[in-house]
Amino acid sequence: MGQTEIKISYSSDNYDFVFQATGISYLFSDFYTRYYNEFNNVIFSSHDQYRNYILKHDVYVAKNSYQQFYFDEHTVQISCVNFANAYKALVQLRNKLCEVKGIHTTDFETFVSYAAIILREYSKFDPIYTAHFLTDTRESVKELMDVVFGLKNKLREQVNDIFFNDGSCLVILLDMISQKYGLSRRHLQYVSINEIRELLHDGVIPPLRLDNTDYVFVHDGDISVSLVGDEATVFISKFLLYSDIEGVDKINGISVSTKGLWQETVKIAKVDYVDLKNTLEVLEKETKGKILVTDSTIPEMFTAISNAIAVVTDMGGMLSHAAITCRELKKPCIIGTKIATQVLHDGDHVEVDAEKGIVTILERAK
């Protein structure tokens, strides 16, 4: 990320809003922007709410990439082999770090090189590509789709095992660096890849950023920019065209599973990817008998989904993790609302109409 300022005007009008989550660290966002795919995108975190936007033209181009990635099962397996080899190398790195109890500058570069492969290959399972399964008319597509989604959940768990889980390769690596330089892991998760390089090579202590500090990453052709703090806040305010959600009492989405009417109180799922294990353990207890409302779901949320009586998400399509899991569990699920986590709050009493894909607020939490 070479530039420190943006001289071009950007607007969310020109982008598709494709993903959001809570608690995505600045460091992982740097990895994502550099290595996940080659699309022109804007990603930012504001008040710890992470969002990813992809240029509309690139969303259209993704259909061509889908046809290449999913030509047949063989092309899918090639990606899986590349992913598996990189994953194995990072597991070996993690084991080595645990044994020697120390860190060398080359260890971080090893992690970066294999993490880049992990992200590149996993990106091929992104909904921006797999959504095209729904319009694919090939006779073999149903069988191929079953293979792909069976693999995706496994690969997602391994991605978390590399980047997010307690004991993941990145967490162990950051713990070793923090011990060497007397810094907290949290400190290091909110710095950039290059700032860690400067720390390891030259002993330059990176700036301390609060967890909820606004940040922005822009990838636009040859332009790669990162902004932090006030500069990021200003960019976000100009980029976003906010819709007025004041007074909204009905939320529309797509019903993808069990039909019927369901009334219960809301539990908002805020998954902190920096502390994934703890937040999931708390969430599993708090979703029992509630309507789970979240940005999107991940495989590790299976127990929380099982405990809930219904699921509502901001993001996702017919082939998203939430849609597939709820169909398997025969739980009502409404996806793609865009605004559910903004409009609803813990304790709100709502009705989920899984026939029409509507969530109606019956009574606000007191």
Q: Tell me the β content.
A: 15-25%
**Regions with pLDDT < 50 over 5+ consecutive residues?**
none
Query: How many structurally independent domains?
Result: 2
SS class: alpha+beta
Cα-based radius of gyration, to the nearest Å: 21 Å
Your description of this structure?
The chain has 366 residues and is α+β, with helices and mostly antiparallel strands. It has 2 domains: 12-239, no CATH class; 250-363, Glucose Oxidase, domain 1 (3-Layer(bba) Sandwich). The chain has 14 helices and 13 strands. It has helices spanning 26-35, 56-69, 73-100, 105-122, 127-130, 141-163, 169-181, 185-188, 193-202, 230-239, 276-286, 302-307, 321-329, 340-343; strands at residues 15-22, 41-46, 49-55, 215-220, 223-228, 250-252, 254-255, 261-269, 291-294, 310-313, 333-335, 349-353, 358-363. The protein has an 8-stranded mixed sheet. The chain has a 5-stranded antiparallel sheet with strand order 1-3-2-4-5, with helices on both faces. Helix 3 runs parallel beside helix 6. It is globular. The termini are far apart.
A few lines on this structure:
It is built from 14 helices and 13 strands.
What order do the helices and strands come in, and which of them pair?
Elements: E1 15-22, H1 26-35, E2 41-46, E3 49-55, H2 56-69, H3 73-100, H4 105-122, H5 127-130, H6 141-163, H7 169-181, H8 185-188, H9 193-202, E4 215-220, E5 223-228, H10 230-239, E6 250-252, E7 254-255, E8 261-269, H11 276-286, E9 291-294, H12 302-307, E10 310-313, H13 321-329, E11 333-335, H14 340-343, E12 349-353, E13 358-363
Parallel strand pairs: 8-9, 9-10, 10-11
Antiparallel strand pairs: 1-3, 2-3, 2-4, 4-5, 6-13, 7-11, 8-12, 12-13
Helix pairs in contact: 1-4, 3-4, 3-6, 3-7, 4-6
